[in-house]
Amino acid sequence: MYTFFVGVDVSKAWIDVSCSEGMAVHYAGQFNNSMAGFKRMIAHLKKSTMVDLSDWFVCFENTGTYSKLLLQWLCSQGIACREEDPSILAKLPGIRRGKSDKMDAGFICQYAYEKREKIKPTLLAPPAITELKKLLSRRNLHIRQCAALKTSLKEHRAEFGADLLKQLDQQNDLLILKHQECISFIENRIEELILSDDEMKKNSTLSQSVIGVGPVITWYMIATTGNFKNFETSRRFSSYGGMAPFPRGSSGIKKGRNRVSPKANKQIKALLSNGALSAIHHDPEIRKYYKRRIAEGKMEGVVLNNVKNKLVARGFAAVHR
What is the rounded end-to-end Cα distance, in angstroms, of the chain? Predict the structure, then answer.
């Protein structure tokens, strides 16, 4: 059981730090968001407690690039830490727009103390998974740029003359081609990365044995599940991807239809939507199920969501069995 708790509010250049050994929270100061700053933070906190480092617990918000260095450094030092979901911390009383970083660090520290029996440390992802996530993020950037370029001139065609429009179209085509080249390069690198790791290679092959689950869906599933290790069941992953409906209401009184959570990984959800359509087209069993449910009067969106869940369940079963 952890006995010394540290709350950190992370920004680009600074980290604000508070600490606690109980309900009383104390502000420890502001430090550089760098390895040198982290070392000064630990040295300063050691003066505030007699608790051994093995019983420390540091909690901070996942702020993307800004918090990754802190996570990596704490893990390398063997200090238990939690990189918490921003949507969870945003619900804490007191953390609202207009509050100071100093106060937010205190609220995060209090949250870590109150959740000490349930909260689990964040485990540093293997280097291959970290690289895969970065490559997928870069790929997604190029895809968005391609989509923007393809639609950018459509809205302004009437505003340009024929000669200028022709030149702009040519430039657009060259930019799109360059982005497509970058996407192909990244996808080749991802394939090399998958093949270089025996376990990822095996799980990639198994998950793609499911009709409707192609390479891109597999890459994202491996990246988001830590190679199928971070989610105990397919149901949990479906919830993460916004495909598991939950009842609405309270006190046992149901209000309306079950709904999926809007707080989900929309990238996974969109990819599985494409996978579901592919499965309906190519898998006789899925197609039969789809047509039967539609004939029964079920809404198409509900049936498609069910197909997505089937793909996730089959993918997990193929890997785990």
Answer: 35
SS3 154: helix
> Distances from the Cα of 315 to the Cαs of 81, 165, 310, in angstroms?
31, 47, 8
Distance CA 185, CA 181 (A): 6
- Write the CA distances from 257 to 51, 125, 296, integer angstroms: 51, 37, 17
Q: Where are the alpha helices (DSSP H) in the chain?
A: 35-46, 65-76, 86-89, 101-114, 127-152, 162-196, 198-207, 215-225, 234-240, 266-282, 284-295, 300-320
Q: List pLDDT tens digits, range 253-302.
A: 555 555 555 556 889 999 999 999 999 999 999 999 999 999 999 999 99
Is residue 200 within 8 Å of residue 222, measured between CB atoms? yes
Distance of alpha carbon 241 from alpha carbon 246, whole angstroms? 13
Please name which of 118, 155, 112, 131 lies closest in space to residue 9, comparing C-alpha atoms: 112
**DSSP string over 195-213:** HHSHHHHHHHHHHTTSTT-
Q: Name which of 12, 48, 60 is nearest 32 in CA terms.
A: 12
- Whether residue 251 has pLDDT greater than 50: no
pLDDT tens readout for residues 193-242: 999 999 999 999 999 999 999 999 999 999 999 999 988 889 989 988 88
- Quote the CA–CA distance of 244 and 11 in Å, as a whole number: 34
Residues 6+ apart with CB under 8 A from 225: 231, 237
Q: How many CA atoms lie within 13 A of 163 on its CB side?
A: 0
**18 close to 108: Cβ distance less than 8 angstroms:** yes
Q: Are 108 and 102 in contact (CB under 8 A)?
A: no
